[in-house]
Amino acid sequence: MHKIEIKSNFTKYKEVFLEQNSKLNLISRNDEKFLFEKHIYDSLGIKLFFAKYGIKRAEMLDIGCGGGFPCVPVAIEYPQLNVTGIDSIRKKIKAVEAIKEALKIDNLTVICGRVENIKGREFDVIISRAVADLEKLCEYALPLLKSGGYFVAYKSRKVLEELENAQKVLTKYNAKVLEIITYTLPLEEMYERNLVVISR
Predict the structure, then answer these.
(1) Domains of the chain
(2) Is the pTM of this model over 0.90?
(3) Can you tell me the distance from the alpha carbon of 55 to that of 68, in angstroms, rounded to the nearest whole number?
(4) Per residue in 84-101, pLDDT tens?
């Protein structure tokens, strides 16, 4: 099982996030105790993909970024990436904007809107966590993916079932699953997570 090495100090980020969470309830109060383990560490599972596929610079899109996961931790950890987060819920986007300003995250852009309405842009890497099933995510992501680019979906236990249901959409866009990278969260209970790596 892979271990994720994290180089950034997320102390200030945690402070700013918790301040926003107290106003907007971006994550549950119970989850606040596990902000690093369940949300920041999980967001940075993408490091396993970056290391394996040699991603150094990229235009990246986070579909359904919510309160900033995974886009904010990824943008902090990888200042050389251009990261765009999109979500249709304005209060969440305002929270991410406030976090971006407080931490001066210059490589992060946020958009309030629906991903289907993004026109005329393609991305090297697209990511999504805790948004929808894989079939729907592929319909959102694959039209925006550059040829030779990667769509990486964060998934939990039902990953194989979701993959089976997504086969028609993968065929439609001439896309294929390259692999599933598995890791666990640093919690007492066993929380297994999967990165589904798709290319076209």
Answers:
(1) 11-199 (3.40.50.150)
(2) yes
(3) 21
(4) 999 999 999 999 999 999
